[in-house]
Amino acid sequence: MRSSPVRIVTAAALFDGHDAAITVIRRVLQARGAEVVHLGHDRSVEDVVAAVLDEDAHGVGVSSYQGGHLEYFGYLVDRLAECGSDARVFGGGGGVIVAEEIDALAARGVSIYSPAAGQRLGLVGMADEVIAGCREVQARRLEGSRQVRPTEVGARSAVGQGSRPVGDDGSRRTRPAAGARPPEDGVRPAASLARSITILAEGGEIELPHARPTVLGITGTGGSGKSSLTDELLLRFKRHAPGVRIAVLAIDPTARRGGALLGDRIRMNALDGVYFRSLATRGAEGGIPVGLDDMIRACGAAGHDLVIVETPGMGQGDAAIADHADVVLYVMTPEYGASTQLEKIAALEVADLVAINKYDRRGAEDARRDVGRQLIRNRGAFGESWRDQPVIGTIASRVNDEGVDELYRRLVPLLCAHDLALTDPPAPSRSRPSAPIVPRGKERYLADVADAVRGYHAATDVLVDAVRRHEQVEAVAALLGDPSPLDGVRAPLPAEAERLLALWRTHIGTEHSTTETLSGLRLPKVALPSDDEPGALVRYLRKENRPGSFPFTAGVFPHRRSGERPTRMFAGEGDPFRTNRRFHLLAAGQPSTRLSTAFDSVTLYGRDPARQPDIYGKVGTSGVSIATLDDMRDLFAGFDLADDSTSVSMTINGPAPTILAMFLNAAIDQAGDPEVVRKVRGTVQADILKEDQGQNTCLFSIDFSLRAMADVQEWFIEHGVRRFYSVSISGYHIAEAGANPITQLALTLANGLTYVEAYLARGMAVDDFAPNLSFFFSNGMDAEYSVIGRVARRIWAIALRDRYGADERAQKLKYHIQTSGRSLHAAEMEFNDIRTTLQALCAFYDSANSLHTNAYDEAVTTPSPASVRRALAIQLIIDSEWGLA
């Protein structure tokens, strides 16, 4: 057998959305020649083990940045051993996994790459070490896999046949596929379908029966949604034909350098009881790997009735799948260029069915007509109508899509004609049409806002020029003593300029609120421009203005709320009682109570605590564990949630509606009055667009999540909830994921404007919902951070007033600042307080509405009470002692 690339499964650990590191690592592994089966983020041990067994992987790499790594990696090693796999385990977690834990895991056979190892080896060096370790596994397996008998192909372990984690009680167990035999005593690991396919892919030989199962070939262009459509079809097979055993062979292209991204498995949600194997083309012509027919027969020998072969993204001239499949499904999208391009697609000549996926896009109906007419030409069926051709519009991303139902209904008789026993499927369901997030015709809303902002500033320049020209003419007239020669050039002052200058003379320029310094001097709270030139004043009033005045660049309120500091410290660890004690520590001696709640990753992903090790290790780690209404009551025990000086922020997104409901019920129970919801102050983050962009705690689709967010906002409007923010539109996590300040601000404002359009499309009035929107930014060491809030406030105010016609209350953008977590250093971490102080000072100067200062030791651990006290002291010193704040 020829030498072949090693196969490695990569993933981020359970309840961990930090997938940037593992994505970089798997790309380097691919570049060094490995075939990588990437599972993405939030993957349980059972997910990973199932993939390792089905894919016959030589190694597995997992990143773990959310704690619980000792339990996760230990459990992974145990489960692999129980299932008879000798795959090597590699991992990383930055500074989260400390040296003692690296040693402990090494004793279990897990190779953890620390930041120091990364500096020593470099990314390429790490990848080469991983591949070398996997080569050792590959060599051992080759020694024991010289020949496999046909009876052994069917004697594979039940786990390898397609088990998936199940269990509604929070546990994730392994169950065999329906009809699967338990592994026989003495059957070696090579006696499995996964190992058989590996042998065939490497040019080996296996005795196989001549009979083969029914084969469905799914081909189409790259990005057409073949994998998503395959997953939806699997779901329908399981619903309507649960007795049919299915195997999926998903093919992806091999790169010129030899590696491959085998990424189809990441799209699959319906693999329970299904065998799924990713294959690389390894340079084979036509995108079909050598030995595919033998692999199909091996699946049949293992007891599978139907084999689905999904090809890579195909070119116009590729139709090789027709030589291997009984039924061919061609998947495309409405975007294919001119209709003449259809004449060049060879697969349309052999396709039994055509699915136009992403059918909600513009031009889909025209595409169905054009494809139908092309099929008529291909088949010479000129007496038929294009409407009667086997062309089906599908939206694989939509739950219970009627188009996919119709596609399945059309597939059944075609498959039955090739000896697959299937009953007639039910009639297609009527799926509810999904309205787009932003209504048709308004897709350019961001460009419209940009035009409004640019137009505002252009108008400012025109006003300034007009005022200066007016002043110059009047000055010349005064010097001449006779204004008549200037009658042709004299013009009245523009009305807007007249209004602004009058406002300056009668109100803004005459108000001088002061504060007393430590030296006893009275200084103005707001520094006004000393230049009284009318043009400069108009520019100041249009672009800056004093705090509390449009465009609110300097702040949305004239002065800071008396009796309340901007301090809002983020806290959460262990159980509700432990976090409650931390809350009381933070609130002690403060003029007001401003709490910010960090939830553990189990809660962030909407799961209950459980004793299963990969779950148990994360309970109460890096946040508080909240699973019941009683937990929520205990979390805020001793705080009057209805008091005007109490404010609660909750950083949670995917399950935000549920957590918010628990909080409001805790407040109602505490006060004994349902009307207390009108009094509570605070924020729930609930920013699902940011999660999709930067943090990955999405539990539901974007469309569904946005509907849930709009439901909450409608409830707020109906029940008069005006003091609680229904969403905190967050740039902080986008920045922590690597964005620079400009990108953070751009994406955050774009997300906020998207919510505005989505809520308007639901029929809500902008003046009713915009005051319930808040924002959240990071302050780092970049110079742009010193004005990030000012820029945000001005853009938002102009957009809401001039684009959406919002009132003054709705125009005010209020935001929270957290000092940058990624700017913290693990080495000499005591100096982090200096970095945090500078970032906090920028937040004060920028008139942030609330502020969290990171503890210096957050780079390596959950902050201690002592480090939290120092972080809090930074704010108190700036607020109470630093005269300019």
Description of the molecule:
With 885 residues, this protein is an alpha/beta fold. The chain has four domains: 1-143, Cobalamin-binding domain (Rossmann fold); 207-434, Rossmann fold, CATH 3.40.50.300; 435-508; 569-880, Alpha-Beta Barrel (TIM Barrel). The chain has 29 helices and 26 strands. α13 (445-480) packs antiparallel against α15. The chain is globular and about 105 Å long.
Care to give the gist of this entry?
This protein folds into 4 domains: 1-143, Rossmann fold, CATH 3.40.50.280; 207-434, P-loop containing nucleotide triphosphate hydrolases (Rossmann fold); 435-508; 569-880, Methylmalonyl-CoA mutase (TIM Barrel, Alpha-Beta Barrel), CATH 3.20.20. It is built from 29 helices and 26 strands. Strand 3, helix 3 and strand 4 (88-92) form a beta-alpha-beta unit.
Protein traits:
29 helices; 7-stranded parallel sheet; Rossmann fold; 4 domains; alpha/beta; 885 residues
Predict the CATH topology of the largest domain: TIM Barrel
Please tally the helical runs, counting DSSP H or I stretches of 4 or more residues.
Answer: 29
N-to-C terminal Cα separation, in Å? 74 Å
Number of strands: 26
User: In the CATH hierarchy, what is the class of the largest domain?
Assistant: Alpha Beta
Q: In order across it, which strands form the biggest sheet?
A: 11-9-12-8-13-14-15
Compute the CA-based radius of gyration: 32 Å
Fraction in beta strands: 5-15%
Question: Largest sheet at a glance?
Answer: 7 strands, parallel
Q: At CATH's second level, what is the architecture of the largest domain? A: Alpha-Beta Barrel
Number of spatially distinct domains? 4
